[in-house]
């Protein structure tokens, strides 16, 4: 008989969810983790980055207090205090992901690198297990581009950025995606000089109308944006480190953060020994997240490549994957992955939230029959009252009024994402949003107003006006 029912590789968001569900259902589980319990999200990703952003937001609000008639001095940034806040956030959440908690569930936790030794065999830390099922949730790591000279320099990634004991004097960030932009704004608001170098345009995956509202906000915080700039080489500098662009421009700073993307952690897993098909994009699976080549194995989180859709490096996707695996692997129920209503948020100020595909992605997929609805958040009463008015809600619908995608830029845009994700995922018509009764005043009213724009031309048409004119004669 197998030693365990389920072997899980990786104690990040996906692996912990699968292990907890499996153990809760009475299955015998082995969980392998070579690093910190909680994975990237807890230790070097979501939690520390959002804690740092919260500190930066507090500094920014102090500077903007005069708009309310409140005069405050320039914030005095205590870097040790900021670091203590970040560490405290991690420490407060860590018990939920701890080895002790999972051992108490009955999970065998192996703090070592795991490696497949056969189609149904795995070893780690000198221990060998046979398994009925295995779930690979080893996550991803920062991509380090092959820039000449970079390998020999002390660059930072998200895995080392939060270890800095001193505030950077000039933080140069290679990459203008979500991580790069969030950390750029956070450090600029905390008193660092910041330059972002991006080969294309910043926030390249997001709707250009949303990015147009973000760009000036970053620059107003002191972030220097160098877009459309390719790096030819990296070299040492008396200040610390420098990037040399293809046009000869030299950008020197005290620190360099590399934030150009993520790559699945495939090395050292022994996937070949288990006959697990994979590519640089991740482990090849079907839409149930089951390996296409080893039916005993599933993949979850950043390392999964379901039917060529590619990985989605978000913690909420890890939870989505765990739910699908639970239904498909444990209960043998129909369960298929869909990213049609997937939300993502860049937690800058203003935030950018994208739910489902963008307008450009839909048109690239051949959808020409699109209705575009917009509502400016400059007209939102709550944001006006808070002195934060500005931004946009943009909805993309089909001719019948079914919501296909939503793009939002503005303060707290991510708080609107759930409303649109439910509407898209459940196939609700725009009338459901337009007719919803929402508390006043909230920023979410912007979403309702945008949805109402779909019906405005019909309600105000000459024909409707004639009908109303006739009806008014009735007693």
UniProtKB/TrEMBL annotation:
* Keywords of the record: Disulfide bond, FAD, Flavoprotein, Membrane, NAD, NADP, Nucleotide-binding, Oxidoreductase, Redox-active center, Transmembrane, Transmembrane helix
Molecular function in Gene Ontology: flavin adenine dinucleotide binding; NAD(P)H dehydrogenase (quinone) activity; oxidoreductase activity, acting on a sulfur group of donors, NAD(P) as acceptor
Task: Tell me which InterPro entries the record gives.
Answer: FAD/NAD-bd_sf, FAD/NAD-binding_dom, FAD/NAD-linked_Rdtase_dimer_sf, Pyr_nuc-diS_OxRdtase, Pyr_nucl-diS_OxRdtase_dimer, Pyr_OxRdtase_I_AS
Question: Has the keyword Protein biosynthesis been applied to this entry?
Answer: no
Q: Which residues form the Pyridine nucleotide-disulphide oxidoreductase dimerisation domain?
A: 343-450
User: Where, in this chain's numbering, is FAD bound?
Assistant: 50, 302
Cofactor(s) recorded for this entry are:
FAD
**Cofactor, how bound (note):** Binds 1 FAD per subunit.
Q: Which Gene3D superfamilies match?
A: 3.30.390.30, FAD/NAD(P)-binding domain
Which residues does the record give as NAD(+) binding sites? Answer: 175-182, 198, 261
Which residues are in the FAD/NAD(P)-binding domain?
5-308
Q: List the disulfide bonds.
A: 41-46
Q: Which residues cross the membrane?
A: 6-27
What does the similarity note say? Belongs to the class-I pyridine nucleotide-disulfide oxidoreductase family.
Which PANTHER family does the UniProt record give?
A: MERCURIC REDUCTASE
The name this protein goes by in its record: FAD-dependent oxidoreductase
Q: Which organism is it from?
A: Neoroseomonas soli
């Amino acid at each position: 008989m197998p030693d365990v029912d389920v072997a899980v590789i990786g104690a990040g968001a996906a692996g912990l969810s699968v292990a907890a569900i499996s153990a809760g259902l009475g299955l015998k589980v082995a969980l392998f983790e070579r690093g910190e319990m909680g994975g990237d999200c807890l230790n070097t990703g979501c939690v520390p980055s959002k804690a740092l952003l919260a500190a930066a937001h507090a500094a920014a609000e102090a500077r903007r207090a005069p708009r309310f008639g409140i005069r405050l001095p320039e914030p005095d940034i205590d870097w040790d205090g900021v670091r203590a806040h970040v560490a405290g956030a991690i420490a407060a959440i860590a018990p939920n992901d701890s080895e002790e908690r999972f051992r108490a569930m009955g999970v065998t936790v192996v703090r070592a690198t795991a490696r497949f030794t056969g189609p149904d065999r795995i070893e780690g830390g000198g221990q060998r297990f046979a398994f009925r099922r295995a779930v690979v949730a080893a996550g991803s790591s920062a991509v380090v581009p092959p820039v000449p000279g970079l390998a020999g320099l002390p660059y930072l990634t998200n895995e080392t950025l939060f270890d800095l004991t001193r505030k950077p004097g000039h933080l140069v960030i290679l990459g203008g995606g979500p991580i790069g932009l969030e950390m750029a704004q956070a450090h600029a608001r905390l008193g660092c000089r910041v330059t972002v170098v991006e080969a294309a345009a910043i926030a390249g995956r997001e709707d250009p109308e949303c990015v147009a509202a973000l760009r000036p906000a970053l620059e107003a915080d002191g972030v220097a944006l160098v877009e459309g700039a390719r790096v030819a080489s990296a070299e040492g500098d008396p200040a610390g480190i420098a990037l040399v662009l293809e046009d000869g421009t030299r950008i020197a700073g005290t620190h360099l953060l590399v934030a150009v993307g993520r790559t699945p952690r495939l090395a050292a897993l022994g996937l070949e020994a288990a006959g697990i098909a994979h590519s640089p994009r991740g482990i090849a699976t079907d839409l149930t997240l089951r390996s296409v080549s080893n039916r005993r194995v599933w993949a979850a989180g950043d390392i999964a490549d379901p039917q060529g859709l590619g990985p989605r490096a978000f913690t909420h996707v890890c939870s989505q994957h765990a739910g699908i695996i639970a239904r498909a692997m444990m209960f043998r129920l129909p369960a298929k992955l869909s990213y049609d209503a997937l939300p993502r948020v860049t937690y800058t100020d203003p935030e950018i939230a994208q739910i489902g595909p963008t307008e450009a992605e839909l048109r690239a997929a051949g959808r020409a029959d699109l209705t575009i609805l917009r509502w400016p958040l400059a007209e939102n009463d709550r944001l006006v009252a808070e002195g934060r008015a500005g931004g946009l809600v943009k909805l993309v619908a089909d001719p019948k009024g079914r919501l296909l995608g939503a793009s939002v830029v503005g303060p707290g845009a991510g708080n609107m994402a759930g409303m649109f994700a439910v509407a898209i995922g459940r196939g609700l018509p725009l009338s459901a949003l337009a007719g919803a009764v929402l508390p006043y005043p909230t920023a979410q009213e912007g979403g309702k107003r945008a949805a109402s724009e779909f019906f405005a031309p019909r309600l105000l048409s000459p024909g409707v006006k004639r009908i109303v004119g006739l009806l008014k004669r009735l007693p």
